[in-house]
Amino acid sequence: MLCIDDLKNAAEELQLLEVVDEKLLEFKKEQRDLINKAKLEYIIGAALEGPEVLDEIMTEFCENRGLDDGLVDYLDEIVAKAQEDENNSDSKESVLVKMLKVIKDRVVAEIRTRDKPYVKLLASLLRMEDHPEREAFLRGALLNPDDATRFQGFIVDGVQYMEQHRADWLMDERVEKMKMIAREAMVGMFKKLLEQRRDAAARQKAEKPSS
Description:
mainly alpha, single chain
């Protein structure tokens, strides 16, 4: 049978466990914040180098599952704190806050689309400088007109998003290159279909018995 001392000891132990649990949660959050801070600094550094470097870093993070809701929550906290500091000083929105907002939007977009089939395809094409290289790559990746149409639509949606969320610190080279890739996808598919029809006609002619 439990006595008063036992109940008192149990209550003290429970209180101690609650304190330990609270401290443990704080420690875990501090560790997550440190990791997310390192990720954010890495992304900002890449963004300042240019859109192509940012694309490479984002692709790398996506492949390694380095982008998650925890990073989005951390960005929300950082943006809110930066905006609060600016509101207190009556200054206009700084370039840093704009940059953080764009990065957050980009991270959210990457999380939402990372499992879509065309993301890696576009990332690979953006790293290619030569048109013949991209054309050959597209021929193997897009097997039919429906694929080409859907891929073009995917790029158009991405271009519209980027043009709506354009920032002064991001160059427009990537947008123009995406537009070029969208055109190349459709032109390449048209050429591929013409070649297939010519090949089919040539085979039919070769198989047709001579009179």
